[in-house]
Amino acid sequence: MKYYNSNTKGFYENQIDGSIEITDEHHQELLEKQSQGGTIQVVEGQVLCLMPTDEQIAQAQKNSNKSRLQSQIAELDNRRIRAIAEPELKDGEQTWLEYYTLQIQELRTKIGEL
Q1: Would you tell me which of 7, 38, 71, 95 could form a disulfide with 49, CB atoms 3.0–4.6 Å apart?
Q2: Cα dist from 91 to 25, 96, 98, 101, whole Å
Q3: 3-state secondary structure of 111
Q4: CB 35 within 8 A of CB 27
Q5: Contact between 3 and 14 (Cβ < 8 Å)
Q6: Helix%, strand%, coil% for the chain, nearest 5
Q7: pLDDT (tens digit, 9 = 90+) per residue, 29-50?
Q8: Residue 70, Cβ neighbours under 10 Å: how many?
Q9: E strands present in the chain
Q10: How far is residue 19 CA from its own chain's centroid?
């Protein structure tokens, strides 16, 4: 037997205050589902592992993509600041500042499409 405590969100070999007794098999099931992205919760006195919905997974992926794009924008912003002080051209017609600004606009468009 194992024990789950919702206050500490942990499993225990021995019962502690507020813990719920579960079988070893159920404990193993919970750990497997948790490793697949589930969240362990106590619902009406039972320890369950709730799996995320497709919508929640899609939202998490969207948030991850948005964060990645925002990091790229921050890096390009740093390059734009340096480009202001350097008047040299990137390819004969376009300045580095113009180039980085266009890159940022493209990334912001991608964020808007998420």
Answers
A1: 38
A2: 65, 9, 11, 15
A3: helix
A4: no
A5: yes
A6: 55, 20, 25
A7: 999 999 998 999 998 889 999 8
A8: 13
A9: 2-5, 10-12, 19-22, 39-43, 46-50
A10: 30
Q: Which amino acid does the sequence have at 74?
A: A
pTM beyond 0.90: no
Q: Assign residue 105 a region (left: φ > 0; alpha: ψ between -120 and 50; beta: otherwise).
A: alpha
For residue 59, give the 3-state DSSP assignment: helix
pLDDT (tens digit per residue) in 47-56: 999 888 888 8
Rounded Cα gap, residues 82 and 90, in angstroms: 13
